[in-house]
TrEMBL record, chain A:
Gene: Psen2
Main location: endoplasmic reticulum
Compositional bias of kind Polar residues: 336-347
Function per UniProt: Probable subunit of the gamma-secretase complex, an endoprotease complex that catalyzes the intramembrane cleavage of integral membrane proteins such as Notch receptors.
Annotated protein name in UniProt: Presenilin
Subunit architecture: Homodimer.
UniProtKB/TrEMBL annotation, chain B:
Main location as per UniProt: membrane
Topology of the protein relative to the lipid bilayer: Multi-pass membrane protein
Official protein name in the record: Gamma-secretase subunit APH-1
UniProt GO cellular component terms: gamma-secretase complex
Pfam families to which the protein is assigned, alphabetical: Aph-1
Subcellular localization, as worded in the UniProt entry: Membrane
PANTHER family, per the entry: GAMMA-SECRETASE SUBUNIT APH-1
Family in the record: Belongs to the APH-1 family.
Quaternary structure note: Component of the gamma-secretase complex.
Gene that encodes the chain: Aph1a_0
Length: 458, 232
């Protein structure tokens, strides 16, 4: 989900200030517990600063925060200016999102193409118990649909669980959960990944060196993501984590199930963010009522200040949880980003899409900037990675899916600027990606192959 | 070279990158539709008949060229609307990007996408072991493919400029010239593997289109001389 984030001040801020700022802010963080990772929750709520220019009454904003931008609240007078600035800087934000998404996809595709491990079928997750090795097409289809249903229900259960925990203020539990899952993600998966890469390139590495490398990587990652650190490093870590998670999905999800799951997840995302009774919406509303930021969900923020993110714990479930958040940010004060200075007058609401994927970590951004949930990253990369792994047209299909996803992201950001509400980032991009994947694989590939064999050019 | 164009001229400005990606997307959609048509035609026809297949292929290529130009036109329309929106939004009443820059970027977008689709599988195969032209085909396959792709990318760029200029000033003959040039270049590739028949005309056409686009963009021989002299 891409939303504008309103960063509500953390506990420290006086209520009125927070309320004036914007109500919505806490993007709901659906944490799906994917058994794999435990997410850490470190929220640095304190970092949020919300100076609300106008107290429009954030109270009026309800849970729609997620989808709605708290921005509205803020400025009525400045709205036009903001809008202009928003749209004007819109292109910049789009690029700020393009780059990490592209990087993540490049990492995933490069790994898929070179390391054999991730394309071998070594079993499935317990969340997709039905195997796809059946002889008949109908049976296979049925199995994949059943797998999808199980996975989606796991995700829904996780999200509702998280919402309940949040409602009953079991913050410590959530924090612990997130910390645990990001711990597991950073150490275990990196170890496996590094092992496979070294195997592929036939590079020998002894255990002590490996231990030191992984220890350093993991420790710095934990600090960066959950506490403070340079922006670039944090972004890099988030990208790496998303890539790792996507690789795990690509490996362990059977083929047809993966495609059906991708489709179902986008529908779920659409509903969870926009329906009034959706869990994500409820989470946002609750957070707004309490005027506190929602757990830093796994969000990638392109703006400078970011608070500790909470990772969603994925414990045993592999369901990716996606949550979209709307966080409206007050762009008044930005701590460190020079860009904030520009947007001083307008509150830049950065759309913050948040998708939580089981082991995603959230970053909260205060300042203007665009936030995109890590779950979104992961699913985009899963789509492109699957295209690279399984398509026989190889690079053409991968390239087509890549462009389709970027265009979907563009459109979503455009809608975000227009509607100023939190929006689900998945549906448009995934739909485009799926359409392009299937059509390129089946239609364009024979055409291009024939053209290339005759060396004709169109 | 096309990638160099991208880095030096486009990568700085985010708006241009978006236009570029959108241009690539439009080309992709046009390719999709044309391959859909071709696919249907092939499925509906007899797979054994060689001549028919070849004829269908030629038909597919021509149709694809026409579709590409149609999509270029659609993209032009979209960009016109976008410019109006940008002008309305900007503070000082003028658009941050001009229609000519957009034309250039759109052309590069089309070109990059078409070049990528033409070359990338070749490049991937080129990494692996093998011998070029083992079945009696030309040994220069990779080289000529590379040159042809490059000329095509540049041509798309120039065609973008010419096309948009024609649409702006309502000079239909410019648009028609672009379409005819495109058809010619694709048609000349039918001469392959007789490379002289395809590469040479393409390069000549490219030089012509380059000069024309340069003149249209406001350049002149004088500018060119000043530019070259200043450098030294």
């Amino acid at each position: 989900m891409i939303t504008f984030m309103n960063n509500s001040d953390s506990e420290e801020e006086p209520c009125n200030e927070r309320t004036s700022l914007m109500s919505a802010e806490s993007p709901p963080v659906p944490s799906y517990q994917d058994g794999l990772q435990a997410s850490e929750a470190g929220e640095a709520q304190a970092h949020r600063k919300r100076r609300a220019g106008s107290s429009r009454g954030p109270n009026n904003m309800t849970g729609g925060e997620m989808s709605g931008s708290g921005v509205r609240m803020r400025e009525s007078a400045l709205e036009n200016e903001e809008e202009e600035l928003t749209l004007k800087y819109g292109a910049k934000h789009v690029i700020m999102l393009f780059v990490p998404v592209t990087l993540c996809m490049i990492v995933v595709v490069a790994t898929i193409k070179s390391v054999r491990f991730y394309t071998e079928k070594n079993g499935q997750l317990i969340y997709t118990p039905f195997s796809e090795d059946t002889p008949s097409v109908g049976q296979r289809l049925l199995n994949s649909v059943l797998n999808t249903i199980i996975m989606i229900s796991v995700i829904i259960v996780m999200t509702v669980f998280l919402v309940l925990l949040y409602k009953y203020r079991c913050y410590k539990f959530i924090h612990g959960w997130l910390i645990l899952s990001s711990l597991m993600l950073l150490f275990l998966f990196t170890y496996i990944y590094l092992g496979e890469v070294l195997k592929t390139y036939n590079v020998a590495m002894d255990y002590p060196t490996l231990f030191i490398v992984i220890w350093n990587f993991g420790a710095v990652g934990m600090i960066c993501i959950h506490w403070k650190g340079p922006l670039q490093l944090q972004q890099a870590y988030l990208i790496m984590i998303s890539a790792l998670m996507a690789l795990v999905f690509i490996k362990y999800l059977p083929e047809w199930s993966a495609w059906v799951i991708l489709g179902a997840i986008s529908i779920y995302d659409l509903m969870a963010v926009l329906c009034p009774k959706g869990p994500l919406r409820m989470l946002v509303e609750t957070a707004q009522e309490r005027n506190e930021p929602i757990f830093p969900a796994l969000i990638y923020s392109s703006a400078m200040m970011w608070t500790v993110g909470m990772a969603k714990p994925d414990t045993a479930a592999r369901g990716p949880s996606q949550q979209t958040w709307d966080a409206a940010e007050d762009g008044r004060e930005h701590l460190q980003s020079p860009s904030h200075a520009e947007s001083q007058m307008s509150e830049m609401r950065s759309p913050v899409p948040t998708r939580h994927v089981t082991s995603l970590e959230e970053l909260e951004e205060e300042e203007r900037g665009v936030k995109l949930g890590l779950g979104d990253f992961i699913f985009y990369s899963v789509l492109v990675g699957k295209a690279a792994a399984t398509a026989s047209g190889d690079w053409n299909t991968t390239l087509a899916c890549f462009v389709a996803i970027l265009i979907g992201l563009c459109l979503t950001l455009l809608l975000l600027a227009v509607f100023k509400k939190a929006l689900p980032a998945l549906p448009i991009s995934i739909t485009f990606g799926l359409i392009f994947y299937f059509s390129t694989d089946n239609l364009v590939r024979p055409f291009m192959d024939t053209l290339a064999s005759h060396q004709l050019y169109i | 070279p096309a990638f160099g164009l991208f880095i030096f001229t486009i990568a700085r400005d985010p708006l241009r990158i978006i236009i570029l990606i959108a241009g690539a997307f439009f080309w992709l959609v046009s390719l999709l539709l044309s391959s859909l048509i071709w696919f249907i035609a092939v499925k509906a026809s007899d797979p054994q008949d060689e001549r028919l297949q070849k004829g269908l292929l030629i038909f597919g290529v021509m149709f694809s060229v026409l579709l590409q130009e149609a999509f270029r036109f659609l993209y032009y329309k979209l960009l016109r609307k976008a410019i109006e929106g940008l002008v309305a939004l900007s503070e000082d009443g003028c658009s941050p990007i001009s229609i000519q820059q957009m034309a250039y970027v759109a052309g590069v977008g089309f070109g990059l996408m078409s070049g990528a689709f033409s070359m990338i599988n070749l490049l991937a195969d080129a990494l692996g072991p093998g011998t070029v032209g083992i079945h009696g085909d030309s040994q220069l396959y990779f080289l000529t493919s590379a040159f042809m792709t490059m000329v095509l990318i540049f041509l798309h760029t120039f065609w973008g400029i010419l096309f948009f200029h024609g649409c702006e000033h309502r000079r239909w003959w410019e648009i028609a010239a672009v379409v005819i040039m495109h058809l010619t270049v694709s048609g000349s590739s039918f001469c392959n593997p007789l490379y002289v028949g395809s590469l040479v005309p393409s390069y000549l056409l490219m030089a012509g289109a380059a000069a024309w686009a340069y003149v249209l963009s406001g350049g002149s021989a004088q500018n060119l001389r000043r530019f070259l002299l200043c450098k030294c």
